[in-house]
């Protein structure tokens, strides 16, 4: 991304759309070396920080989110700059020194002095940043740039001094070369994901492939890569890492950056917002829609979320107004996490976000991260310590299911904040929750689940997905075409997933990017005189 040059005198560094990722602890300590290539944790955190920079701007709660995540296991949070706060400031505000001490922060750009002094002061152990386009404030003092304000020059000098004299190292992200098989694996699994499968089932013949991937890649490359080698060398020199300009480091760095951006493009192309989105079939018709600040529709429910298994609490907090773009953004975070799976066959990722009462001044608005997870063996276990076979293995004692922790279980277990009581909490999980996790989700008090309904209703022997359909007391939004707006006026039934022919009202609803909210407590609309079904 090009340096942001603003007309005001504020150093525009992280005030642009910088993102920080920080964390500590670990979800699992396994050094799994299975046949499936895995994303290294450094690359995962880097990708999450880059992806946070793409957080949808129209988030109705505010503007753009921030994220911080663990460097070694536990993701503490994901942050992104907002109108008032830079990403680093947001992280300090949310976690405080107690939360940040010893953690690692991943930034999608080198932090400005304002952020750097705060995160250093909070006791973080390391600060990493993506060596892409510089922000204006990283230009060194003395560089002759007519657009560089005196304040930006001072900021650049302060950043250098803080970086040089601080105890925690402030350095370029240690990007790991991507495993040769990983790109192919990510591309393939992203094409075959449950979400893409649904799109292809509903719209056979749709060329989602090349078109989608190419446009995602173009967009992300333009944002995160420096096309010209000469310019990139200049950027690295400005960032204070001249040594990376030398060969073979320079070529290797550029290759890895390119590979990571391609990887991100593959994953994000796996969830095309063409005619699909997250909708709650059962409750689709009862939601209330309002226009978001961007003019795009958002789903908003006038009452609060229902307590697990019970009715909505009257006068409770409002349900989250989450646009399709925000939901898609979060499920892509979960998809990225899934590439750290320790299951030799199926990767699943989960993230939990909650919505607070007030806008924290960050890009995420009222949303804040509660936890992240992926399916893996118990923390601290070693490779091959536990069985890895699936249900097809004739001897059940070698099957994995009794040992592997599910993505939701890890997200709940290694959460960095409490799941709020009486406030919206949103679980994004890349696979339908199984029967083992449904009671957990209910008991945890999660109010919204965004997932795929692939395998829903199936009993696969060792693992079954029978209970999610009947799970009551929360909003379940699955990836699908918009259900008919009014079951009485269309030839569909409430809750039916397929069969919508994309009526005008469906299209309007999709254009509005609405998510289905919980059932409104207001009286249902009167039935038409001659209902069709
Ligand atoms: N919501 C979910 C669903 C599943 N999993 C994890 C648990 C297991 O690691 C794996 C199980 O996935 P499948 O149900 O696809 O079962 P199999 O591994 O047997 O694959 P398949 O059905 O393709 O034979 O996914 C998870 O973490 N969270």
TrEMBL record:
Name the Pfam families for this protein.
Answer: dCMP_cyt_deam_1
Q: State what protein this is by name.
A: Cytidine and dCMP deaminase domain-containing protein 1
What this protein needs as a cofactor is: Zn(2+)
Which GO MF terms are attached to this record? dCMP deaminase activity; zinc ion binding
Organism listed in the record: Muraenolepis orangiensis
Q: What is its EC number?
A: 3.5.4.5
Chain intervals with Basic and acidic residues compositional bias: 505-515
Gene3D superfamilies the UniProt entry points to: Cytidine Deaminase, domain 2 (3.40.140.10)
